[in-house]
Specification:
Elements (H helix, E strand, L loop, with lengths): L5 E6 L2 E6 L5 H7 L3 H10 L11 E2 L5 E2 L5 H5 L7 H11 L4 H13 L13 H8 L7 H7 L2
Antiparallel strand pairs: 1-2, 3-4
């Protein structure tokens, strides 16, 4: 680091001029956290079982937070159409696994479920499985959903 806020160097036949921005003393002090702040931040990242909560990145490039509702998780797969999400959840409630996969295939054909990045193959199964709405294996899902 240069001793002042400017640096001039010769690179080839050109003189390169750079200015450096240093944080003020006030900004430096604001960036330092006390032990108590670090403990609170540490607690915020962990759930009640002591496991670190992580954001899950979907194929759509969106993050799924652990505390999100099923509707919020499914929304990107249904083109962000909340009404279709609610209708889908209502229809699959109590439905056998084979009928759920048949419904998914119909909705993909009707363009009500996104086919982007094969979201119906992985993301949709993972969300439904994690929420207890579809209890069969991913292999079974992949055989039935096309």
């Amino acid at each position: 680091m240069p001793s002042d806020d400017r640096d001039i160097r010769l690179e080839g036949e050109e003189a390169i001029y750079r200015e450096y921005a240093y944080p003020s003393k006030k900004e430096q002090g604001a960036g330092e956290k006390g032990q108590e702040d670090r403990n609170e931040e540490h607690e915020d990242r962990y759930n009640e079982r002591g496991q670190e909560e992580q954001l899950l990145l979907t194929d759509h490039g969106e993050y799924i937070e652990p505390g999100m509702s099923v509707e919020e998780k499914l929304s990107p797969i249904f083109y962000n159409n909340e009404e279709n999400v609610r209708q889908f959840l209502k229809e699959i409630n109590g439905m056998p696994a084979n009928d759920i996969t048949d419904l998914v295939n119909r909705w993909v054909q009707d363009k009500r479920i996104s086919d982007y990045g094969y979201s119906r193959k992985g993301e949709l199964w993972a969300i439904l499985y994690d929420e207890g709405l579809y209890d069969k294996s991913r292999q079974n899902w992949n055989r039935r959903v096309f």
